[in-house]
Amino acid sequence: MIRIKRLFKSFSYAAKGLIKTFKEEQNLRVQAGAGLLVLCLAWFLKVERLEWALLIIVIFLVILVEIINSAMERAADVLKPRIDSYVKEIKDIMAAAVMMASIAAVIIGIIILGPYFIDLFS
User: Fold this and answer.
1) Does residue 66 have an active-site annotation?
2) 43-58 residue pLDDT tens
3) Which of 24, 25, 66, 73 is catalytic?
4) CB within 8 A of 28, min separation 6: which ones?
5) Domains along the chain with CATH numbers
6) For residue 80, what is the DSSP state?
């Protein structure tokens, strides 16, 4: 049985975590802003429903990986001092994951939005 009060508490904790991460992580704000810009462009260009779905998936993927990156960085800092070489490697690897997700999102964005821009200016 679902306990509504417990469910709302869980959502409350998740919202607090998202807000805290958004306030403290500049990269998350940049990625969210870029995602919002892409969604505005998609609306302006009147992209198809499946294309909307793909754009939303990749935007949320980038944001999700950035949130995981932030959590992993904090966990690494708690477990080992900042000067430990493994902590640096963990942070570098997680940054690489965010970079790869971002590159994939840009490529997918170009594949989807590119033809609309070509049609717009031709």
Assistant:
1) yes
2) 999 999 999 999 999 9
3) 66
4) 21, 22, 63, 66, 67, 70
5) 26-120 (1.10.287.3610)
6) S
DSSP symbol at 75: H
Express each pLDDT in 62-85 by its tens digit.
999 999 999 998 888 887 766 678
DSSP one-letter code for 50: H
Single-letter code of the amino acid located at 60: F
C-alpha closest to that of 59 among 97, 19, 118, 101: 101
Mean pLDDT of the chain: 92
Tell me the pTM: 0.87
As a whole number of angstroms, the distance between CA 94 and CA 100 comes to 10
- How distant, in Å, are the alpha carbons of 74, 90, 105 from that of 114? 38, 35, 13
